[in-house]
Write a structure and sequence with these properties.
Layout lengths: L4 H136 L4 H14 L3 H13 L4 E5 L5 H15 L5 E5 L6 E6 L2 E6 L1 H16 L10
Parallel strand pairs: 1-2
Antiparallel strand pairs: 1-3, 3-4
Helix pairs in contact: 1-5, 2-4
């Protein structure tokens, strides 16, 4: 094959023109499209990084809130347990108080019933002892036991000591009311005058002396004014008997002073 210089030069020129045309109309657009694609990919990557960071922040916040919720739940459970314990303690205390109150009321009711029983026993025992003594003395003597009891009371008044006389005198002179002599029987008029005379002489008072009947004092005679009393009778003995009965009530196994 024979080399043709003209053809060779023409082909070089054509190739150069082709390269220039491609560079001007094709390679520039391709390069711009590739640059645009690269910039878009970079933007997408940057957005992905930002979204990942935001997701991590959200997860951290969610974990913190969950931790706070768990802490709050534990606090609420502890508060509920404490309230339950307090309510249980209050209920136990209320039940204990109610039980003690019931026991106290029962003891008060029992004490009142016991006191009423002792009073009734004391009164009836005094009446019974008085009737028995009166009957026995009447059978042994013509003198009535009422007058004998009044004479004994009169002797007790006459034999009072200095301190008792002073207290009785002070009580009489403090009062504007009469001295009242109580007995469960009628006192002979002569003995009434003697008793009144002794009281007036003892107290140096002009207060009257009244004689009244009262079965409530039981067995004996009593002179009273301003809360001060002088008495004779079975009250001392019945007080001892009352103590004996009360002791038996308190301790059913205890023996009285008159037990063998």
């Amino acid at each position: 094959m024979e080399f043709d210089l003209f053809t060779f030069i023409a082909q070089v020129i054509n190739f150069t023109v082709l390269i220039a045309l491609l560079n001007k109309f094709l390679f520039g657009r391709v390069k711009a499209a590739m640059d645009e694609r690269e910039r878009k990919i970079a933007d997408d990557l940057e957005k992905a990084v930002i979204q990942r960071q935001e997701a991590e922040k959200s997860a951290a916040l969610a974990a913190e809130e969950l931790k706070l919720l768990e802490s709050r739940r534990q606090e609420m459970l502890e508060d509920a347990r404490n309230k339950a314990r307090e309510e249980e303690a209050q209920m136990k205390a209320a039940a204990q108080t109610a039980a003690e109150e019931r026991q106290k009321k029962w003891q008060q009711a029992f004490s009142m019933e016991q006191e009423n029983y002792i009073k009734a026993l004391k009164l009836h025992s005094g009446k019974f002892a008085w009737k028995v003594s009166e009957k026995m003395l009447r059978e042994l003597s013509d003198e009535k036991i009422n007058n004998k009891a009044a004479e004994i009371f009169l002797k007790k008044l006459e034999a009072l000591g200095g301190a008792q006389t002073a207290e009785f005198k002070a009580a009489v002179n403090r009062s504007e009311k009469p001295v009242v002599v109580l007995s469960p029987f009628v006192i002979d008029d002569i003995l009434k005058d003697k008793i009144s005379g002794v009281i007036v002489k003892m107290t140096e008072s002009k207060n009257k002396v009244l004689f009244e009947r009262s079965e409530s004092i039981g067995f004996g005679i009593q002179a009273a004014v301003e809360g001060y009393k002088i008495s004779w009778g079975g009250s001392e003995y019945f007080s001892g008997m009352e103590k004996e009965v009360i002791d038996v009530f308190k301790d059913g196994n205890k023996k009285g002073g008159y037990d063998g």
